[in-house]
């Protein structure tokens, strides 16, 4: 059959179409059912247009005929929990939807019949584009969100989300919807679950008109909910979604023309991220892989001004402390340096030197080497743009650590990784560099593969350091320091592998010739088939 025409008139923001006088309730219901079966954006738009149509104006010749006119749909008192919901204009599709809505919810409350959850969800979806009066939040949605049905609860949360994030500014203020969303977040028995992650993207709209204390409570409680869910389900998507919502708060707060947040609220949110959120992410990383969560965190960190990170001592890399915390902290710092978020070249160099010293001092065994190795490669890429003098200072710092802390420290391995990026590329070294990049990017590296990578880079130190020091003023100073390290290691009977590297480096610097321990065949083999190594 053909689609019945229900209305006439111009559809525009400045006029309102009217239903035809002969549009019967049955026809309206049929159109609604037809649109309800179409799960498309177009069907939702059409429903919104139909909901905005006004009743027809019927001219009557006398008063008697005027008395015989009846509404197209019988008026119902939309009641829930003893309260009366606003009743829309009779005869509109909105009135019809709300009548169906009340009927289904009444079944849900009285349990007289099975409630059609799918129908309720579709009705909620039709209402999302509209700006609903605040009474819907206090008298209706608060009951729906507390439902035992997860599907119904999620549909109610989506409707609530649409009202406090997407409502038209010229329409109702929507304060009741904001208050309900805050209540949902902060109440003890929280209805949010894994399917409701979209809710966290609206945190800015929740707190932008709230007090500073209430805003902090919303951020803290919502983060605790995400942590609890992630620990129970071993899924960290909720942490990523929360951080994405938090980044919206930070980015809008940096835009003076659009933010409505008070300076107290903004700074409290920034400190919360740098201190509490970072600490929780580090704790979570001890029992799960959090690379995606960490990436989302660094995106937020890029929105934080340096005054806050300095206040929280975020750039302080101490010699003492939990290794896993500083590994994550150093990754963040390197990201900030690459994005030019560290003000001043001298300060940046000071921070990099402190990282070099900390990494060099670490004593690790087994799989813990992988974390330090990744940090070392990040350090190499972050320092390759430095001038010759700055790089020479870092080499001397590493040699000083080797002299004081001995062969058990990670210093010699760090030196090999840095020189791999800093030195001139010979044909042999180029193959080694490609091999290391490919292997280090593989997930779940075995301890044997890590050892092979380190062995390759250690044996290339003589070649790489010779080319780096060629023509520099620090060549003699570096030579003397390496000689001191070699003598000290001989006295304590250091492993032969390290002593051989040091001795070969000394000979290479003085003679101008290097002993090549690596063959192109082995490097090419590692590049093509890392699993065989």
Instruction: Give the tally of β-strands.
Output: 4
Secondary structural class: mainly alpha
Radius of gyration, whole Å: 34 Å
Low-confidence stretches: 9-15, 57-83, 425-431, 434-440, 513-533
Write down the overall geometry: elongated
Helix content: 55-70%
Give the overall average pLDDT: 75
How much beta, percentage-wise? under 5%
Tally of helical segments: 25
Q: Biggest β-sheet, characterized? A: 2 strands, antiparallel
Distance between the termini: 71 Å
Can you put this structure into words, describing what you see?
The chain is an all-alpha fold and 533 residues long. The chain contains 25 helices and 4 strands. Strands 1-2 form a two-stranded antiparallel ribbon. The chain has a two-stranded antiparallel sheet with strand order 3-4. Helix 16 packs parallel to helix 18, helix 16 crosses helix 19 and helix 19 crosses helix 21.
Describe the secondary-structure layout:
Layout: E1 7-8, E2 18-19, H1 25-36, H2 41-51, H3 63-67, E3 79-80, E4 83-84, H4 93-110, H5 117-127, H6 135-145, H7 150-165, H8 175-186, H9 203-207, H10 212-233, H11 237-254, H12 263-285, H13 291-301, H14 306-311, H15 323-338, H16 345-361, H17 369-383, H18 388-405, H19 411-422, H20 427-440, H21 447-459, H22 461-469, H23 475-491, H24 496-511, H25 520-528
Helix pairs in contact: 4-5, 5-7, 6-7, 6-8, 7-8, 10-11, 10-12, 11-13, 12-13, 15-16, 15-17, 16-17, 16-18, 16-19, 17-19, 18-19, 18-23, 19-21, 19-22, 20-21, 20-25, 22-24, 23-24
């Amino acid at each position: 059959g053909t689609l019945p025409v229900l209305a006439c008139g111009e559809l525009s923001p400045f006029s309102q179409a009217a239903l035809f006088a002969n549009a019967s309730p049955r026809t309206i219901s049929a159109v609604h059912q037809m649109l309800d079966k179409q799960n498309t954006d177009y069907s939702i738009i059409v429903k919104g247009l139909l909901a905005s149509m006004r009743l027809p104006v019927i001219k009557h010749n006398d008063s008697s005929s005027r008395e015989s006119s009846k509404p197209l749909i019988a008026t119902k008192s939309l009641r829930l929990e003893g309260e009366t919901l606003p009743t829309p204009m009779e005869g509109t599709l909105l009135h019809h939807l709300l009548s169906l809505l009340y009927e289904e919810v009444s079944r849900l409350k009285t349990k007289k019949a099975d409630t059609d959850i799918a129908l309720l969800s579709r009705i909620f979806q039709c209402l999302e584009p509209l700006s609903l009066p605040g009474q819907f939040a206090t008298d209706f949605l608060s009951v729906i969100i507390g439902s035992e049905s997860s599907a119904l609860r999620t549909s109610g949360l989506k409707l609530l989300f649409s009202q406090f994030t997407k409502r038209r500014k010229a329409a109702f203020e929507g304060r009741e919807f904001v208050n309900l969303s805050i209540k949902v977040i902060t109440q003890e028995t929280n209805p949010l679950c894994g399917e409701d992650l979209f809710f966290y993207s609206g945190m800015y709209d929740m707190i932008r008109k709230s007090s500073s204390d209430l805003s902090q409570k919303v951020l803290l409680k919502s983060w605790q909910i995400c942590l609890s869910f992630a620990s129970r389900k071993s899924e960290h998507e909720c942490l990523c979604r929360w951080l994405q919502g938090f980044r919206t708060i930070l980015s809008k707060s940096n835009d003076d023309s659009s933010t409505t947040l008070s300076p107290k609220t903004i700074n409290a949110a920034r400190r919360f991220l740098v201190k509490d959120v970072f600490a929780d992410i580090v704790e979570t990383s001890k029992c799960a892989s959090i690379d995606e969560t960490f990436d989302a965190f660094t995106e937020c960190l890029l929105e934080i001004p340096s005054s806050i990170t300095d206040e929280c001592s975020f750039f302080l890399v101490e010699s003492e402390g939990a290794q896993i915390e500083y590994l994550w902290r150093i990754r963040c710092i390197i990201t900030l340096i690459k994005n030019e978020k560290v003000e001043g070249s001298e300060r940046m160099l000071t921070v990099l030197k402190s990282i070099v010293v900390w990494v060099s001092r670490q004593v690790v065994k087994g799989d813990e080497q992988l974390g330090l190795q990744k940090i070392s490669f990040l350090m190499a890429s972050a320092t390759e743009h430095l001038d010759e003098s700055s790089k020479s200072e870092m080499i001397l710092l590493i040699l000083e650590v080797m002299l004081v802390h001995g062969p058990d420290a990670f210093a010699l391995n760090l030196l090999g990784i840095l020189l791999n990026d800093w030195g001139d590329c010979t044909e042999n070294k180029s193959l080694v560099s490609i091999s290391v990049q490919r292997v280090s990017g593989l997930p779940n590296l075995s301890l044997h593969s890590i050892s092979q990578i380190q062995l390759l880079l250690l044996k290339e130190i003589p070649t790489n350091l010779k080319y780096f020091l060629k023509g520099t003023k620090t060549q003699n100073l570096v030579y003397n320091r390496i000689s001191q390290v070699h003598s000290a290691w001989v006295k304590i009977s250091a492993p032969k592998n390290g002593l051989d590297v040091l001795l070969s480096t000394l000979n290479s610097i003085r003679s101008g010739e290097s002993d090549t321990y690596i063959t192109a065949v082995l490097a090419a083999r590692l590049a093509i088939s890392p699993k065989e190594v």
